[in-house]
Design brief:
Chain lengths: 307, 186
């Protein structure tokens, strides 16, 4: 009698497991695109390496994201899980926000749909322009919060952010940057734009001409951190002239085996897509770089270096 | 004594010729810049008559619709447009000289490296008053080069496609004019 009961119990458990697995599979298959679920990863699996201090400024960073491919959706899904746990309230975009054509469908497929869960909870996206972006359409696209400009500044708590258009750094933009950095009262000054000033990636390399034009301003006015994309990998660069540099161009695109000799980088990651979490609290900047797989590939705390 | 006087006269004449050619070249440059700016002003005033105001919007459909309207109206405003309307021979010669001096001047190696690292585009077929080639990225233009070219109003940009310097209308995504072979480094 007892043997039979165990048999039944096992059979029920087996059926339940099959139903659970099947419904999970169906849910994945129904999602967008090509079987990527829009559900966040379970919170229990998250390893959070930023301190989540009171009144800190918390944001995520993505670069070269707008492919509309499965990898972009999976990174977005991972971001959603971390947003639920860390409550970051904005995302900075390092350019190449929409690859290829810019039809209304592309804005949905390459931005609105993958980040819908984040947009739905009020997370704001602040875009900068890459070489694959349409400068006029994207500056006017309200969800990118560019205020109708190719370059712009905004403030979050003690941190001042400067979104630059590195595709077209004309004298007018340089003069705008000079004036806005000079006038900024932010304790932290953070610049973000597409083309990296320092870069160990072999595919593109650094933009030395851009560096010559903007670096003197960054140094003069005490910029603390710079985020760029373009190279489809993650890199943390050795601090140069009291400024921290990150390259994150793999939130959609990926260039595997892209690194040569480590000249500028302290940490590099080129085997999967990733995004960053950043928290600014007082004189510290905390960061965590998370791969699409969920693995934390880099993290740390950086003091504000006074100019 | 006579030989010395002749030598002095010769030096003076050569110096005068040199200064005269400098002044003439500068006047030539000023003329080319003025001609370019006049043509840009004419282009923009014709375009503005047709303009559709673009404002920030949540709707990508609206953006696409507005862009199409602007492109069509801009194209209609200059139905006879052809290469050289803006970049006339004199203006082209001035631009080529400026680009060459930037690429081969003291900052040349840095500018050339910037062009190589920018994801250079291949030479593609360009047509004046036509849409910028579909799905082709907009290669960045080195800041030092932008400093050495005449400033443009915010509606227009200098872009590099292959070896051509393109005058690009941002709102309409139109090729306003171009100089083939102006940027040979790419």
């Amino acid at each position: 009698m007892e043997k039979r009961l165990t048999k039944y119990r096992n059979a029920i458990l087996l059926i339940a497991a099959m139903v659970f697995a099947l419904t999970g599979h169906l849910r994945l298959a129904q999602a967008d695109p090509k079987g990527v679920s829009t559900q966040a990863a379970p919170a229990a699996k998250l390893a959070i390496k930023i301190p989540l201090q009171d009144k800190s400024v918390r944001f995520a960073v993505i670069g070269d994201s707008g492919t509309g491919d499965r990898a972009q959706y999976e990174v977005a899904q991972r971001m959603e899980a971390y947003q639920q746990a860390t409550k970051f309230d904005f995302v900075i975009m390092l350019g190449d926000n929409i690859y290829g054509s810019h039809s209304p469908k592309d804005f949905v497929k390459k931005f609105e749909r993958p980040y819908k869960p984040l947009l739905d909870v009020g997370v704001k996206f602040y875009a900068s322009l890459g070489n694959h972006d349409d400068p006029d359409d994207e500056r006017l696209y309200k969800p990118f919060n560019m205020g109708g400009e190719r370059y712009y500044a905004f403030r979050k708590g003690e941190a001042a952010f400067f979104a630059l258009d590195s595709n077209y750094m004309d004298p007018k933009q340089l003069s705008w940057l000079d004036q806005n950095l000079k006038d900024s009262q932010g304790t932290w000054k953070i610049c973000f734009f597409h083309h990296p000033l320092y870069n160990d990636g072999r595919h593109h390399g650094p933009d030395a001409d851009l560096r010559t034009q903007v670096l003197p301003l960054f140094q003069r006015y005490g910029v603390n951190a710079v985020f760029s994309g373009h190279e489809h990998v993650y890199q943390r660069i050795k601090p140069e002239n009291n400024i921290y540099y990150f390259v994150l161009g793999n939130s959609g695109k990926l260039m595997t085996h892209d690194f040569g000799e480590a000249r500028e980088r302290v940490k590099g990651f080129d085997s999967d897509q990733s995004f960053m979490l950043v928290e600014i609290a007082g004189d510290k900047l905390y960061f965590q770089t998370i791969a699409r797989s969920g693995e934390t590939v880099d993290s740390g705390e950086l003091p504000r270096i006074h100019p | 004594m006579k030989l010395d006087a002749c030598r002095s006269w010769l030096a003076l004449i050569l110096l005068s010729i040199f200064l005269f050619s400098c002044v003439m070249a500068q006047k030539g440059d000023e003329g080319a810049i003025k001609e370019f700016q006049d043509r840009i002003d004419n282009y923009l005033s014709a375009r503005k008559k047709q303009d559709v105001a673009r404002k920030p919007t949540d709707s990508a459909d609206k953006l696409a619709e507005q862009k199409q309207q602007i492109a069509e109206k801009s194209q209609q405003a200059r139905p006879e447009a052809q290469r050289g309307d803006i970049f006339t021979p004199a203006v082209s010669a001035y631009f080529k000289k400026q680009i060459q001096s930037t690429l081969h001047g003291p900052e040349g190696s840095r500018v050339r490296a910037s062009l190589r690292h920018a994801e250079p585009l291949p030479d593609v077929h360009l047509q004046v008053n036509a849409k910028y080639p579909k799905n082709l990225p907009l290669q960045s233009t080195p800041p030092t080069l932008l400093k050495n070219l005449p400033p443009l109003p915010k509606e227009l940009q200098y872009r590099i496609v292959g070896s051509a310097l393109v005058l690009y209308d941002m709102s309409a995504s139109l090729v306003v004019d171009f100089i083939p072979g102006a940027v040979p480094v790419t």
